[in-house]
């Protein structure tokens, strides 16, 4: 304040007072020092663009504009400056990129779709011509180089012709009939053609092919069918073979199947272990079931005794590959096995399933479902193919006769079920649904009204066996794991229970009416591929597995009754021997 006061002194004071003049000179020099510019290291700077203060903005939620706003103001970012790292002018409206709606006409969409399928590129209208970095984009997706070479042509545009178009030969001179320049006229061909020249394999290749055909035929004929009997004698004291139905049992093996109430077996009473590899199928002897036939992956077929000694009776050899399926004729005197060659009948393809016609007057006819999508009908007497059914699109898995053997139902790897009239190669019923899976095992219910099909989606589905072949949606048996395995389905003789194996070695039993699981237990160490219920025993079941074993199961009650009868028999024998001993002693004493 003193410095400011000295600047406003009057002129009189300056002239009259010399001391004050000196003082004023000193103050003036100091005031000049004080007026030097001051450096502000942190000045106040406005962060707002002065141009933006005069701009008019709208809210992002506004749908109407009441004033004329420049385009530069409309495209300003909502918050913050523009992102310098965004190379495209579009914003990321989803987490993984940008999604925008486009409206195309049907013609434009089909044009670009077919252009991409034919040429490998298509126009991309979502791309802009110029990016934020002033880099011109191609506007195409796919093969951009080809699109630029063809100038973005579509399938409806004229495309460049091929350079190597064959040229037509000259017509020649009409005055020359033969020779190099002879007249050809409109019949002149193209340059580079080989019409009229010998085209084929070299001379040495034809004998090699013939030798290969002969060797392949010899390979099929190599399988020498032979059989081995395992026992002391094939005939008993009366001249009967093992085919004779035994009469010394407490079971009527010639009775009507299903006449007795059946029970679920729980205990294993015997194990057959003669195969060296997995057993693929087992079948009881027709009607009596006193024998059991087994087919294995060791290329052998064996017949086993169910009663008495329960040993292997005979082995059949001659297959050069694993045996997939076996079936008996009605009288049991003949059976068929499925492999590459069916006895003396062959189609050149591998059969997956074989079935005799169940009619008594047609026991010389059988069907074979092969890997070439066909069902072949053979006549044993003539050895010829009498009919072919070729509507399937995959390998045929099952053949089941229905409707008093006038029709048969087949399933295949094409996930369909087809019904045929016997001896007529026309499908009368075709069932194919999006939810259907392949059904490699099918069994007919004892009442002949239903078909139980093992589906590969881990369930057993039921279809009607009458005219319509409709699916019974209320009957579905689940709980087991069979995906990838053709586990056989079977019924009890009275039709009350349905059973199946699974991939974990378990055997499952369901109630036919309620579809509830009644019993499940561990039967084998590997997948249980086959199961057969004895037609005359109330609780006897045979199972086979890929562990090479065949097991016989009975219920606990039946097993205990058998043991008690056995014990009572020995008690009776002991009492009889004791009484005989006493009577013999009394006689000797009386004689003495």
From TrEMBL:
Q: What is its main location?
A: nucleus
Name the SUPFAM superfamilies for this protein: WD40 repeat-like
What would be one Gene Ontology cellular-component term for the protein? catalytic step 2 spliceosome
Select a single GO molecular function from the record's annotations and give it: mRNA binding
Query: What keywords are assigned to this protein?
Result: Membrane, mRNA processing, mRNA splicing, Nucleus, Repeat, Spliceosome, Transmembrane, Transmembrane helix, WD repeat
Q: Region annotation Disordered: residue ranges?
A: 1-29
Q: Where are the transmembrane segments?
A: 552-576
The yes or no answer to whether the keyword Transferase is present is no
Q: Name one Pfam family in it.
A: WD40
Q: List the biased-composition ranges (Polar residues).
A: 16-29
Give the SMART domains listed for this entry: WD40
Which GO annotations describe the biological process of this protein? Answer: mRNA splicing, via spliceosome
Q: Subcellular localization, per the record?
A: Nucleus
The ranges of the WD repeats are 272-306, 389-423, 489-520, 521-553
Database matches in PANTHER family: PRE-MRNA-PROCESSING FACTOR 17
Q: What is this protein called?
A: Pre-mRNA-processing factor 17
Q: Species name for this entry?
A: Dentiscutata erythropus
Its lineage reads: Eukaryota, Fungi, Fungi incertae sedis, Mucoromycota, Glomeromycotina
């Amino acid at each position: 304040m003193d410095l400011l006061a000295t600047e406003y002194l009057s002129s009189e004071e300056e002239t009259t007072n010399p001391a004050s003049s000196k003082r004023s000179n000193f103050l003036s020099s100091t005031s000049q020092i004080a007026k030097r510019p001051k450096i502000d290291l942190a000045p106040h700077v406005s962060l707002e663009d002065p141009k933006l203060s005069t701009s008019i903005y709208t809210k992002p939620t506004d749908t109407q504009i009441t004033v004329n706003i420049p385009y530069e103001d409309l495209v300003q970012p909502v918050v913050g400056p523009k992102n310098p790292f965004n190379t495209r002018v579009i914003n990321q409206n989803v987490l993984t990129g940008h999604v925008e709606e486009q409206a195309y006409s049907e013609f434009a969409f089909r044009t670009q779709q077919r252009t991409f399928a034919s040429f490998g590129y298509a126009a991309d209208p979502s791309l802009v011509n110029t990016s934020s970095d002033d880099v011109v984009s191609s506007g195409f997706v796919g093969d951009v180089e080809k699109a630029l070479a063809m100038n973005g042509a579509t399938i409806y545009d004229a495309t460049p012709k091929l350079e190597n178009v064959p040229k037509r030969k000259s017509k020649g001179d009409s005055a020359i009939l033969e020779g190099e320049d002879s007249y050809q006229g409109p019949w002149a061909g193209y340059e580079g053609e080989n019409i009229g020249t010998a085209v084929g394999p070299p001379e040495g290749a034809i004998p090699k092919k013939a030798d290969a055909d002969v060797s392949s035929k010899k390979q099929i004929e190599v399988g020498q069918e032979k059989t081995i009997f395992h026992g002391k004698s094939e005939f008993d004291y009366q001249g009967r073979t093992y085919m004779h139905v035994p009469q010394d049992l407490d079971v009527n093996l010639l009775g009507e199947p299903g006449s007795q109430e059946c029970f679920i077996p729980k205990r294993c009473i015997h194990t057959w272990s003669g195969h060296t590899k997995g057993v693929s199928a087992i079948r009881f002897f027709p009607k009596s079931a006193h024998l059991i036939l087994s087919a294995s992956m060791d290329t052998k077929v064996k017949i086993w005794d169910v009663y008495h000694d329960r040993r292997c009776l005979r082995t059949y050899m001659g297959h050069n590959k694993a045996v997939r399926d076996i079936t008996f004729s009605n009288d049991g005197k003949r059976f068929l096995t499925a492999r590459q060659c069916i006895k003396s009948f062959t189609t050149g393809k591998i059969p997956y399933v074989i079935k005799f016609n169940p009619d008594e007057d047609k026991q010389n006819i059988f069907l074979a479902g092969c890997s070439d999508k066909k069902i072949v009908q053979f006549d044993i007497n003539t050895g010829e193919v009498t009919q072919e059914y070729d509507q399937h699109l995959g390998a045929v898995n099952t053949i089941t006769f229905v409707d008093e053997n006038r029709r048969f139902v087949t399933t295949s790897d094409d996930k369909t079920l087809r019904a045929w009239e016997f001896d007529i190669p026309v499908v009368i019923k075709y069932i194919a649904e999006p939810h259907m899976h392949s059904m490699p095992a099918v069994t007919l219910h004892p009442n002949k009204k239903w078909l139980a099909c093992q589906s590969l989606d881990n369930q057993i589905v039921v279809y009607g066996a009458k005219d319509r072949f409709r699916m019974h949606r209320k009957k579905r048996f689940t709980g087991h794991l069979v995906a990838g395995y053709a586990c056989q389905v079977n019924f009890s003789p009275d039709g009350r229970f349905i059973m199946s194996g699974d991939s974990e070695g378990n055997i499952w039993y369901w109630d036919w009416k309620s579809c509830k699981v009644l019993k499940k237990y561990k039967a084998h160490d590997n997948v249980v591929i086959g199961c057969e219920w004895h037609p005359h025993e109330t609780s006897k079941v045979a199972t086979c597995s890929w562990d090479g074993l065949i097991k016989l199961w009975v219920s606990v009650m039946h097993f205990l009754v058998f043991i008690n009868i056995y014990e009572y028999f020995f008690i009776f024998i002991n009492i009889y021997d004791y009484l005989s001993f006493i009577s013999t002693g009394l006689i000797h004493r009386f004689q003495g």
